[in-house]
């Protein structure tokens, strides 16, 4: 059985695609998705701390979270892995308040998974939250493959957990990555073709 880690935002859910419209509506600025060359949205959108807090709260409201489109091919590939007997965990850095809405969105989109795990990937939680694990706790969970769009998280998984990582191609991770365990991918179709795991027991 393979144990597979799959990130949620911009890997399963087309999340950041919607943010340029929010920035224009809330702050009157125009920033193209293609120009978001930093994973830190505060930097990419050139927001003050006050603006960023407002933006962060806005994008995690239920009406926003429920209206994201799925990334083409994500659900189908994950379903094939699960049907073949493999474990597929969704591992997200979303804040705890987004848990129930995130689960509702996954149910609406019929995206299967083995476990939904919230991790403090970006050191946002100032204190322990029930249902959110630390990166140290994540390290205790063995994975055979991960699909991520955050370069920093991909490097953490590859270096500290020895996990092969498929880095889903996005503007903010476009710089060259010279690490043997990280492989850049452009689509779920590419993932499905090249990581088509055999059924367990076959």
TrEMBL record:
One family from Pfam that matches here is NT5C
Q: Which GO terms describe its biological process?
A: deoxyribonucleotide catabolic process
Q: Which family does it belong to?
A: Belongs to the 5'(3')-deoxyribonucleotidase family.
Q: Where is the active site?
A: 7 (nucleophile), 9 (proton donor)
Q: What's the protein here called?
A: 5' nucleotidase
Could you give a GO molecular-function term held by this entry?
A: 5'-nucleotidase activity
The record ties this protein, via InterPro entries, to: 5'(3')-deoxyribonucleotidase (IPR010708), 5_3-deoxyribonucleotidase-like (IPR052419), HAD-like_sf (IPR036412), HAD_sf (IPR023214)
What is the species listed in this Swiss-Prot or TrEMBL entry?
Desulfotignum phosphitoxidans DSM 13687
């Amino acid at each position: 059985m393979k144990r597979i880690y799959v990130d949620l935002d911009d890997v399963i859910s087309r999340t950041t695609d919607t943010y340029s419209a929010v920035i224009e509506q809330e702050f009157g600025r125009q920033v193209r998705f293609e120009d978001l060359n930093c994973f830190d949205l505060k930097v990419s959108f050139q927001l003050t701390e006050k603006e960023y807090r407002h933006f962060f709260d806005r994008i995690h409201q239920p009406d926003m979270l429920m209206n994201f489109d799925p990334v083409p091919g994500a659900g189908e590939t994950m379903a094939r892995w699960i049907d073949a007997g493999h474990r597929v965990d969704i591992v997200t850095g979303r804040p705890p308040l987004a848990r129930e809405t995130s689960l509702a969105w996954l149910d609406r989109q019929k995206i299967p998974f083995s476990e939904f795990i919230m991790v403090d990937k970006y050191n946002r939680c100032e204190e322990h939250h029930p249902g959110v694990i630390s990166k140290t706790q994540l390290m205790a969970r063995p994975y055979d493959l991960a699909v991520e769009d955050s370069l920093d998280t991909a490097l953490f998984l590859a270096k500290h957990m020895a996990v092969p990582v498929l880095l889903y191609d996005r503007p903010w991770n476009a710089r060259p990555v010279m690490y043997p365990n990280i492989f850049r991918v452009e689509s779920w179709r590419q993932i499905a073709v090249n990581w088509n795991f055999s059924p367990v027991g076959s």
